[in-house]
TrEMBL record:
<dbReference type="Pfam" id="PF00528">
    <property type="entry name" value="BPD_transp_1"/>
</dbReference>
<feature type="domain" description="ABC transmembrane type-1">
    <location>
        <begin position="79"/>
        <end position="290"/>
    </location>
</feature>
<keyword id="KW-0472">Membrane</keyword>
<keyword id="KW-1133">Transmembrane helix</keyword>
<keyword id="KW-0812">Transmembrane</keyword>
<feature type="transmembrane region" description="Helical">
    <location>
        <begin position="145"/>
        <end position="166"/>
    </location>
</feature>
<dbReference type="GO" id="GO:0005886">
    <property type="term" value="C:plasma membrane"/>
</dbReference>
<feature type="transmembrane region" description="Helical">
    <location>
        <begin position="114"/>
        <end position="133"/>
    </location>
</feature>
<dbReference type="InterPro" id="IPR000515">
    <property type="entry name" value="MetI-like"/>
</dbReference>
<keyword id="KW-1003">Cell membrane</keyword>
<protein>
    <submittedName>
        <fullName>Putative aldouronate transport system permease protein</fullName>
    </submittedName>
</protein>
<feature type="transmembrane region" description="Helical">
    <location>
        <begin position="75"/>
        <end position="102"/>
    </location>
</feature>
<feature type="transmembrane region" description="Helical">
    <location>
        <begin position="21"/>
        <end position="43"/>
    </location>
</feature>
<comment type="similarity">
    <text>Belongs to the binding-protein-dependent transport system permease family.</text>
</comment>
<feature type="transmembrane region" description="Helical">
    <location>
        <begin position="269"/>
        <end position="290"/>
    </location>
</feature>
<feature type="transmembrane region" description="Helical">
    <location>
        <begin position="187"/>
        <end position="210"/>
    </location>
</feature>
<dbReference type="InterPro" id="IPR035906">
    <property type="entry name" value="MetI-like_sf"/>
</dbReference>
Length: 305
């Protein structure tokens, strides 16, 4: 009987593994197909793309779409500003949110409930666009790089996530630092940060994606400052210009190439696809370096600390 049950169990496991494998393959296809399709459109000739029928591979391979996007002189400087904004903004947001989260997670802190409620209220109530602009102006942040960084110094959603993670840490590990004579700041640096590395990596990814993709604040505060323009804002302007130009073109929305002829011409469709790839690749390249932290357990960090 035991042998028969073992055989049944092993067969059931095989069926589950096969079904799980098929499901994961289908999920991977559904997830990757839109990105691969957009990549194929961005690498395909714009005039040929109008015909449709492009799925996984470009039918007429060309780099004209990328040349059209990167022909703008401000693109490379805007990319540098976007990188600086993403790196600095992510580091500052993660450290700032983690420090406040550690503070309000301490049971002996008298104002922890009041400060937590005050932060949470900001998630539901906002002064609005005009009051925010007036606030940035009165703080002399309009027309400066720090308008990208300081308003997001503390992310309330990130704060709640990190605080919940810290509250689940074994209290004995935190008390061990105090027994050794460490203060709150040293405890935070030496013990809390290594323990919370998985959640900090997740928050860093959220914050990095937000900083990299943000363009509306550039439009509000620094639209007249070319030297502070970001990649996303420049791509947005290219898309708007291409759409406006296509509206006056005679060949189904075709836009002449850089030399003014139909050779190397692009369309709003090809520009959107190219912009999606240009904006997505840097985040995709960063993700593998953060992925390893997502699977780390809390006690692994405790042993390393």
């Amino acid at each position: 009987m035991e042998k028969r049950n073992r055989i049944r169990t092993s067969r059931g496991d095989r069926v589950f593994e096969i079904c799980n494998f098929i499901f994961m393959i289908l999920l991977m296809i559904v997830t990757l197909y839109p990105f691969i399709n957009i990549l194929a459109v961005s690498l395909n000739d714009a005039q040929d793309s109008i015909k449709g029928g492009i799925y996984l591979f470009p039918r007429a391979l060309t780099l004209d779409n990328y040349q059209y996007v990167f022909k703008e002189a401000t693109i490379f400087h805007a990319t540098l500003i976007s990188i600086l904004r993403t790196v600095i903004g992510t580091v500052v947001t993660v450290l700032g949110s983690a420090m406040v989260a550690y503070t309000i997670s301490r049971q002996d802190y008298v104002l922890r409930k009041f400060i937590t409620i005050a932060f949470i209220l900001t998630m539901y109530f906002n002064g609005g666009l005009i009051p925010n602009y007036l606030l940035m102006r009165d703080m002399n942040l309009v027309g400066s790089f720090w308008v990208y960084i300081l308003p997001g110094l503390i992310g309330v959603f990130n704060l709640i996530i990190i605080r919940s993670f810290i509250e689940n840490l074994p209290e004995s590990i935190l008390e061990s630092g105090k027994i050794d004579g460490a203060g709150d700041f040293k405890t935070f640096i030496s013990i809390v940060l290594p323990l919370t590395m998985p959640v900090l990596a997740t928050v860093a990814l959220f914050s990095g994606v937000y900083q990299w993709n943000s363009w509306f604040d550039v439009f509000l505060y620094n639209s007249s400052k070319i030297n502070l323009s970001t990649l996303q804002y420049e791509l947005q302007k290219i898309l708007q210009n291409s759409t406006a130009t296509a509206g006056t073109s005679s060949m189904d929305g075709m836009i002449n190439g850089a030399n003014g002829s139909q050779q190397g011409a692009v369309t709003p469709l090809s520009i959107r696809a190219t912009m999606t790839i240009v904006a997505s690749v840097p985040i995709i390249m960063v993700y593998p370096f953060l992925q390893k932290y997502f699977v780390k357990g809390m006690m692994v960090g405790g042993v390393k600390g």
